[in-house]
Amino acid sequence: MAKDCESAVGTDVSSTMLDKAEQHRKEMGLEHVKLVKSDDNLSKIDGTFDFIHSIYVFQHIPPSRGYKIFKRLLKKLNPGGIAMIQFTYANDLSTGRRILNWTKMNVPLFQQINNLLHLRAPDFPFMEMYNYSLNKLENILHCMGVNQVYIRFTKDGNYRGVMLFLESKSDSDDFVKLDEVP
Hints:
Blueprint: E1 8-12, H1 15-28, E2 33-37, E3 49-54, H2 63-75, E4 77-91, H3 95-106, H4 110-117, H5 134-143, E5 146-156, E6 159-168
Parallel strand pairs: 1-2, 3-4
Antiparallel strand pairs: 4-6, 5-6
Helix pairs in contact: 2-5
């Protein structure tokens, strides 16, 4: 996408991912691309944007943090701007798999032992997956002044999600203050 834009900003919380993105940026000669290490407040991301895209990100962020980040992203969307943002809302995991995943996240050393049994490095991370409430997402969209939403349902393995294609209202006076959104 960055090839077709005047300017672009890429962000991640992982220094490793940003280093990889920097390699690609240099290889492709994309001088107009800025890479920024992110935090939950998006405090290092300056300005507003005509287009925001996020895929396979929120599902790895606990919803208590993710809803706040989602609000901040929408606040950075220019009036009339477009966003494509993906969320996971349900899974079809068996009870046994749910118990195993809970154990990996909550029982000390279990993940490390599981990694060794599967011939992985002991510190190989467990990929946490979180489900978001579609009702809460809709409420945030409404309160943040989103004018139109198209929802495409997705399924990736045992995980069901939505890709939200949205447009913010053109009249910024209709926006609710960020701290007033439930």
